[in-house]
Amino acid sequence: MMLPAGRGPFAGWPADAVARVDRAAERHGGWARFAALTSVKMELLALGGPLPRMMGLGRTFTMPARMTVWPHECRVQFGGWERSPTTWRSRSSSRTRSFLDADGASLRVRFADDWPAHNRVQRFWLADDGLLVRHDYVAEIVGRWAQGAHFVDDYVEVAGVWIPRRRRVRVRVGRQALPIPVLHAQFGAVEAGVALSDQ
């Protein structure tokens, strides 16, 4: 996983996997721009699906109008409600291993035990131009059975970084994404906080 200072530690990764990640990073704006990104504020236009309703949307909470993400702190705030890594262990020793699949269409990544992630092993699908189009994981906070295929599109460039504004999660069996929706979200205006250069 990339560290806040810039390009991530890739010790032990196959060379073709490193090249694919570097290409994807460049397509999304580059390591340096991401390292300078302090926060992303997004207007939330729509949020729906069985998962948000199961978590209480419409009963115990209303759809927030905005969300803010602090990517290097693994922290997110929906309206006035915040999720932070205070209960997670230190990230100082976090490392990942990655293996490029034979089909060349995706990367399989194993996250370190102390990294805050949906689950340890995840798969990232990249388009030919390097943009992320799909992210497969198990939402263990819901249950070990909760296999999802998370699709992203409607990218917008903000402060030199490309950010998707539409997210759709569908039920997944193995690599097969089924036409069963779990969650959908549509974002509007996006603002980015960027650290000022020392120069």
Protein topology:
Elements: H1 15-27, H2 31-36, E1 37-48, H3 50-54, E2 66-70, E3 75-78, E4 81-83, E5 96-100, E6 106-111, E7 121-126, E8 132-138, E9 147-158, E10 161-173, E11 176-194
Antiparallel strand pairs: 1-2, 1-11, 2-3, 3-4, 5-6, 6-7, 7-8, 8-9, 9-10, 10-11
Brief summary of the model shown:
The protein has helices at 15-27, 31-36, 50-54, and strands spanning 37-48, 66-70, 75-78, 81-83, 96-100, 106-111, 121-126, 132-138, 147-158, 161-173, 176-194.
Structural Rg = 17 Å
By oligomeric state, this entry counts as: single chain
Low-confidence stretches: 1-5, 86-98
Within the CATH hierarchy, at the fold level, what is the topology? Answer: outer membrane lipoprotein receptor (LolB), chain A
Question: Helix share of residues?
Answer: 10-25%
| Count of runs of 4 or more consecutive helical residues | 3
Structural class: mainly beta
How many runs of DSSP E, i.e. beta strands?
A: 11
State the CATH class: Mainly Beta
Q: Main β-sheet: number of strands, strand sense, barrel status?
A: 11 strands, antiparallel
